[in-house]
Amino acid sequence: MNKLIKEAIKLGGTGQRGVYFLNTTQELKDFYLDGLKKYKQWKAIASIEDWLPVDDNFFQDFRKKLDERKIKTKVIFKKSGIKYEPKGLKYREVKVIPASYKFRSSVDILDDKLLIMNPRLKTLGLVIDMKPMLDVFHDTFDLLWATLPKTEK
Fold it and tell me: What is the per-residue pLDDT for 122?
């Protein structure tokens, strides 16, 4: 998987269609806000402690906006992130992975593209709209989701 991501980053640097960078916090916010108008479902594997500091108010509010728009959201994150989870969201499901997993990036898996985000890197986000990669991420997410126990918030 890391090799696939590194190749996508290299491709993004060439300016070819299918891969582009989000270099600023505003570009990242615009990506998320545009998604509110476009998608009916949202899947993510997230390292909340790593991306929340980018703009904690925005990201907390974004979660509520997903729910207000009735966008079915499934999120997998480390157990330590459960403390940031807003209460009362009807369209959001959460599952947690064991603390032994130490990933620091987040992946948003949408109908037509992926967003890989890591605020510790020079490039804040990498957007990929390549169908073969998208299929792999959807299947991997669904497999992981099916194997994790239901999480009580």
Answer: 75
